[in-house]
Every structure is written in C-alpha cells, then in structure tokens.
Amino acid sequence: MIVTLEGKLTHKSPTYIILDAGGIGYGLHVPLSTYHKLPQISESARVFTHLAVREDAFVLYGFYSPEERDVFFKICSVTGVGPKCGLALLSALSVEEIKEVIYKKDMASLTAISGIGKRTAERIIFELKDKIEPPSTQVKEGREDIMQDAEEALISLGYERVKAQKAIKKARERLEGTVSLERLIKEALKNM
Is residue 123 part of a domain? Predict the structure, then answer.
C-alpha cells in the first residue's frame, strides 16, 4: 500500500498532479484544498495517498494532510458514495467545515455541492454522524482557504486577480453560514 509520496512536483492542475518520486511519475487526483497548499512546479512536495484498486484501473488520490485523507476514507465508506463525491466534498469544504455540516445535519450545504443530491446528503449525515468527531471550536479556520480556492478558480477561468478578489469578497458578504466552494464561485460570477 502506498501511504505517502515525496518528490518533485512536475505537473499541477486544480484536480490532478504528477509527482516524480525516484524517477517514477505518479499521477494523483487531488481536491482543491490540496492543490492550493502545494508548492510550485519543480519544487519538492509530500502528499498522503490512497490507492483505489478498481476492476479496470489503479487510481491514486493525494491529500495535503492525513486528516484530509481520513475524511476522504470515511466519505467513500458511505453507501453509494465514491471517490468523485469525496473529492468534490473536500474541494468545496475544509475538514472542519465537513465536520460542522455533519454535526449540525446541514443538508443545504451538502446539496449545494455538485453531485450530491438530497438522498446522498442524508446518507452521508446518517452514516458519518458517529464516525466523525465533532468540529473543533475554530470552525471558521478553513474560511480563508475556500476564499483563496475560489480566487484561483476564477483566475483559471481568465479573470484578473484583483477583479476576482473583489467579486469573491462581495459574494461572501451576501452568503451566510457554511458555504460550498461551488456556491461561492457561482455567486462571485454574478459580480463579474
């Protein structure tokens, strides 16, 4: 089992990276939370991994922290929920925000994420409520990361950094409570 990989980052996109470790290029699917924290291309990086063995492929998933990887495992253990949904959830919400959403049974925040409908949200809350510890007292800690992820997404769409920052700030002021990355980006695009 591959638990961690350390090497030179040779490719970096919001959902996929290539890490050269010992002369072998490992392709890893990553959430936006990990993408944002990784160094620049050609710099050394370390990621915590999960290897999914499917009938037709071996797929590596990479995470910046062991907490992200553990939450990913738990999300994927939910009936009918796969890695794609796990990455979407970790891309939209920080680990602490996911804990808060599950602890508060916040269906609206879950269903706001692409690919998660009402039934899937109910299963996630029902099956994980006893498996994930309650959020820490610093729930708002991940808020800065989601703002930066939204900014990077708008820049990758071709918008200027300053305009993206202003649009995201306005969108965040209008939205209340726990907000998914997708919802924040949609709201910010209304200001562009």
Answer: yes
- If you average pLDDT over every residue of the chain, what do you get? 87
**Residue found by looking up tokens 């590596």 in the block:** 60
- Specify the number of domains making up the chain: 3
Q: Which structural domain, as residue segments, surrounds residue 104?
A: 66-128
pLDDT tens-digit readout, 86-128: 999 999 888 988 998 998 899 988 998 888 999 999 999 999 9
Q: Is residue 143 over pLDDT 90? A: no
What string of DSSP letters covers 96-154? Answer: HHHHHHHHTT-HHHHHTSTT--HHHHHHHHHHHTTTSPPP-S-GGGGHHHHHHHHHHHH
Instruction: Tell whether 143 is covered by a domain.
Output: yes
**Could you report the per-residue pLDDT of 34-77, keeping only the tens digit for each?**
998 999 999 999 999 999 988 999 999 999 999 999 999 999 99
In three-state secondary structure terms, 52 is strand
Q: Are residues 123 and 169 in the same domain?
A: no
**Phi, psi for 104 (deg, rounded to 5):** -90, 0
* 8 occurs within a structural domain: yes
Query: Do 36 and 89 lie in a common domain?
Result: no
- 72/74 Cα distance (integer angstroms): 5
Task: Look at residue 27 and give its three-state secondary structure.
Answer: strand
Does some domain include residue 110? Answer: yes
